[in-house]
Each structure stands twice: as structure tokens, then as C-alpha cells.
Amino acid sequence: PETAPIVPDPHPVVPRERHVHAIPTNAELKVARALELFNGSPHPRTVAGVTRSLGAPIVSARPSATEGSIVTIVVGWELSWYRYEVDLGDEGKGVRVAGQGTELDELDPVDQNSNAAADDRGALRLTAAVA
Question: What is the pTM of this model?
């Protein structure tokens, strides 16, 4: 008995790539993932450049109190600050600048409590527990 040759389906169903990621539930895991995404973005260059001029910044990284997938990262110096947001529910959007200013007094007190640090390349890392 001769078997018929196997003919591949000319229109195979290919699963669509999804850009939805599981969002960590623990605050520290959320912040760690957000810092990882920040460090892989172009923004550390900005942090490194300002640090060369103004010295080491304060760095605050914390999950949003109102939006479960958002992590806010604030990097501030005496004369300048940047607020970045990372949406862990849509990592494809990348890290975005959500605000900037010239006085640390413009920031909420919680954003002035440093729990992370920047290295000389502008990469950020946690140095204390996430509140």
C-alpha cells in the first residue's frame, strides 16, 4: 500500500504575538522590573549626563498608588528632576518622561525619599526596600 505524500497546509494558523505581559504583584518585583526596563532604555544617558554636572541624584522608585501596572521613577538633583513612568502591562511602550522640573520642592515628599541609586552610567538599582 502506497501512502499519499504529506502536503503542508497552504494557510497555516500562526498564533498572533501578544504584547501583554504578566504584571508582578509584589511591589519590590514591580520596581525591579521597571528599573530593568529603565536601564535598557536611552534614559540612563540623561541621568549620567546630569550627574556629571550636578552630582549624585536622589532616586525614588515605587508602584503607582492608583494604577496597578504603573511604576513611577523619580530622579532628582538640587536644580533638576525627572519623573519617568513604566507601564508593566504594556512594556512595548517603553519608559516615558512623565514630568520634569527645576526644584526638588516641586516633588511630593514620598518622591524625595530615596530608595535607589544611579551609577556613573546612569543605570538605577534599588538600595532600600520599596514602601
Answer: 0.80
